[in-house]
Amino acid sequence: MQTHIKPDSDGVAVPRAAVAEAVLRSCVHCGFCNATCPTYQLLGDELDGPRGRIYLIKQMLEGGDATETTRTHLDRCLTCRSCETTCPSGVQYHTLLDIGRAEIERRVPRSPPQRLFRWALRFVLTRPMVFRGVLVMGRLLRPWLPAALRDKVPGAVVPPGRRPRTHHRRKMLLLEGCVQRSLSPNTNAAAARVLDRLGIELLSAPGVQCCGAIDYHLDARAAGLAHARRNIDQWWPAIESGAEVVVQTASGCGAFVKEYGEILADDPLYAVKAKRISAMALDLVEVLRAEPVESLSAANSHPGALAFHCPCTLQHAQRLGGAVEGVLNRLGFKVAPTRDGHLCCGSAGTYSVTQPALARELRDRKLTALQESDPTQIVTANIGCQVHLASAARVPVTHWIELVDRLAAN
After folding, report:
1. What is the CATH architecture of 297-409?
2. Domain boundaries, the chain
3. H/E run at residue 404
4. According to CATH, what is the number of the domain 17-107?
5. What is the pTM of this model?
6. If we measure between CA atoms, which residue out of 142, 182, 195 comes closest to residue 383?
7. In the chain, N or C: fewer CB atoms in 10 Å?
């Protein structure tokens, strides 16, 4: 694809223009991406598929019109990256989308109410104490909330239980996350207990909260980068003391931490450290699949079929499709296949809040596929997907590590 990226009408050069140009030129506009794009499947509009959005971004960067319509089509993208898994040319679509979204925000600012709404999302979701207070209030008011809001407020959660205090020679850092602490506090506690049984101690850096993804993808790139720098500073002493890896139990956080090296590549103070952090970042399943997990179970099989929802951030961003199923199979669980498992459930970070109608339709399609095998339970690997699916599922939806923890405790 030929490109001629130009400054805007005020003569301001496009940030990361060389990166955008490289991505655009790698696209051969074959259209294979549309076949696996969830929004194209729903809407059937070329501009709501990756190829159409690439053309919109190209047009804008080459000096063409940038309008509210352009933003609408870019906003509708889930950033699920299914198109990247499909693309035969290796187009890094998500990188171009980040550049395009930042550019449309600069050229066509949102209205004050829209900016306030997105600021409020960022303020609440990235601060665990604030989010916990909002969640408590939401639960109190839940019976009177509109259905769209009621779906976002889960009921009772599994209490976290004890965390092991055993010290082991092998130590790993854990990203505690922000919303997961309140929505599913047992997830990280279960991970700590399982790894403790395998001789691994999980460490938490108290100053680490959000990975930065929420800010970065909600028009506040500088704030997202600030989160990344703060996390690197907090983790660094433990890394220098011998921590093996940085573990994430939420695949959305893991996908973003693995990009620290890329998004901070031009930062002279953090580029080297960020690259090392990204190399050390592992999803929990990457840790467990390298360990003798069979020792956690004395049984050869377990009753009841499971359905596993593989989050987009696990299968498309981190390219770990099939990894969780492999660990569960080694433990004797029967994992039923899921039709159209490559398609997004509609959670996609804050997408289920900013695009509720599309998100609900994608959720209902995903649940239909997951529940076709009549599973006793649905497990997943990302807190956003977990809460989104649980809002309408017929069976419990939990993080897969909680299942492993219960098995190991028996």
Report:
1. 3-Layer(aba) Sandwich (3.40)
2. 17-107, 112-150, 170-288, 297-409
3. helix 400-409
4. 1.10.1060.10
5. 0.91
6. 182
7. C
